[in-house]
Amino acid sequence: MVDVGAILVGIGRLILSIIVAVFGVWLAIKMFAWFTPIDEYKELEKGNIAVGIVLGALVVAVASIIAAGVSGIVAR
Prior knowledge:
Strand content: under 5%
Distance between the termini: 20 Å
Structural class: mainly alpha
Oligomer: single chain
Helix content: over 70%
Number of domains: 1
Shape: elongated
Order of helices and strands: HHH
Number of strands: 0
Largest sheet: none
Radius of gyration: 17 Å
Number of helices: 3
């Protein structure tokens, strides 16, 4: 028989993990933009590939760190 309670808890943990991950990456990008002297968004609009690579690396690095923390939420 399917345990509906366990499924709902799993879905709740998944949603919480997604919220934490998205907020963490968003916060990291905002802090990076705040600490650097250039406007990253304008540079991206101008087609500056180097800024895009740096922001992409930032997202990957922060996502790797957050993944370790979020894994504790979704683990049984």
